[in-house]
Design goal:
This protein is of the alpha/beta class. The chain folds into two domains: 136 residues, Aspartate Aminotransferase, domain 1, CATH 3.90.1150.10; 256 residues, 3-Layer(aba) Sandwich (Aspartate Aminotransferase, domain 2). The chain has 14 helices and 17 strands. α5 links the parallel β5 and β6. The longest helix is centred in the first third of the chain and has 20 residues. 48% of the residues are buried. The protein binds pyridoxal-5'-phosphate.
């Protein structure tokens, strides 16, 4: 079936207006208009975020929590407001359940090294899935090395869906935690995490959800999911780099030992011992990325202003359009055809290495990602070393998908495929 033309869609989504908010998009790269389709790696920033960060440094810059002067009060108020915004964004019950971290990677390492060390011992088991990002594999491997615990891995099928029957059979009385991606960055699979959490809880096992690829694309409600931990990165949700969120149920965070020691995470220190600050400050040692947190708050407001449901519908339209356009191409194989997918398309072309695909696309001004996407086990499952990946955001257009398709045609010409 041939792909529908862009005019067959009548999008009501204000994509052109949204594009105006992103200065970086309005440039030429290698003499061609930039087509940015590497949003799975990081998303571009709207003026609102850039301006808020600059405004903070121009007008309010001071350290938080410790000052009695006006600038410190302003910085503290803005930092606290960002925490409340993040709380509302994922519908957490309490702002104390929001810990600011560097990103998803640090959030998972924090849980592994605090909750993990306190609750996981020799012979215990942690369940992951085959589609995890390295950020949700390596911290657990390190914990296993330190404690003598083991990983159990739920396999995925040929589409890239977790095989839920096998997942359910992995539980034993030694299972201590499930750590699972909400959305796979390599395949686009949206995992049925509500169901996976229910299964885990039926065994009394808590669940950490890696939401790095979900937060920018769908509404997250941690209370409805009933997850125990949820992690996401600011830079993937239109915010700055170096800031992210670890959500944890208050009772769990309360009971966890601190992660790093230092200033701001203590109530009282003497050489005899230290009383730690209450959550979330117990986990926020040292001077934090204050500008980043403020920028993140603005980014989350920006996303809410457009509406996550509208963003999801728009990205889905782009995904369907791209999938149809690529489906009939000879020698092109889409890697990841899960029942429910986020706006992300991984593919390989027989006879062309993924990195060469990426380079030829770049010459045409189209930025995609090529590689293993920090998900080597998922690549191995599909028998490939690397894929090319186009991933969509709210500002992408159907015409940009056309540019992707034209770029791929060029790749095929270059390789005489
Ligand atoms: N988990 C997933 C699914 C990801 O896609 C990524 C980044 O690509 C991460 C975790 C790590 O995120 P960060 O590098 O922002 O810590």
């Amino acid at each position: 079936m041939s792909a529908p033309s862009p005019t067959q869609f009548r999008p009501t989504f204000p994509v052109e207006r949204i594009r105006e908010d992103f200065p970086i998009l309005h440039q030429e790269v290698r003499g061609k208009p930039l087509v940015y389709l590497d949003n799975g790696a990081t998303v571009q920033k709207p003026n609102a975020v850039i301006d808020a960060t600059a405004r903070y440094y121009r007008h309010d810059n001071a350290n938080v929590h410790r000052g009695v002067h006006a600038l410190s009060e302003r910085a503290t108020a803005a930092y606290n407001a960002a925490r409340s915004t993040a709380q509302r964004f994922i519908n957490a019950d309490d702002h104390r359940e929001i810990v600011f971290v560097r990103g998803t990677t640090e959030a998972i390492n924090l849980v592994a090294q605090t909750w993990g060390k306190a609750n996981v011992g020799p012979g215990d088991e942690i369940i992951l899935t085959e589609l995890e990002h390295h950020a949700n594999i390596v911290p657990w491997q390190l914990l296993c090395e330190q404690t003598g615990a083991k990983l159990r891995v739920a396999p995925i099928d040929d589409r890239g869906d977790v095989i839920l029957e096998v997942y359910a059979e992995l539980f034993s009385e030694r299972t201590r935690l499930v750590a699972v991606s909400h959305v796979s960055n390599a395949l686009g699979t949206i995992n049925p995490i509500r169901r996976m959490i229910e299964t885990a809880h039926a065994h009394g096992v808590p669940v950490l959800v890696d939401g790095a690829q979900a937060a920018p694309h769908m509404r997250i409600d941690v209370q409805e999911l009933d997850c125990d931990f949820y992690a996401f990165s600011g830079h993937k949700v239109y915010g700055p780099t170096g800031i992210g969120v670890l959500y944890g149920k208050a009772a769990l965070l309360d009971a966890m030992p601190p992660y790093q020691g230092g200033g701001d995470m203590v109530r009282r220190v003497s050489f005899e011992g230290t009383d730690f600050a209450p959550i979330p400050y117990k986990f926020e040692a040292g001077t934090h990325n204050i500008a980043g947190a403020i920028g993140l708050g603005v980014a989350l407001d920006y996303v809410n202003g457009i509406g996550l449901e509208s963003i999801a519908a728009h990205e889905h339209r782009l995904l369907s359009y791209a999938t149809e356009a690529l489906a009939d191409m000879n020698g092109l194989r889409i890697i990841g055809t899960a029942r429910e997918k986020a706006g992300l398309l991984s593919f390989v072309i027989e006879g062309a290495h993924a990195h060469d695909i990426g380079t030829i696309m770049d010459v045409q001004g189209v930025a995609i990602r090529a590689g293993h996407h920090c998900a080597m086990p998922a690549m191995q499952r599909f028998g490939v070393a690397a894929t090319a990946r186009a991933s969509f955001a709210a500002y992408n257009t159907l015409e940009e998908v056309d540019a992707l398709v034209t770029g791929i045609t060029k790749v095929r010409e270059v390789f005489r495929l």
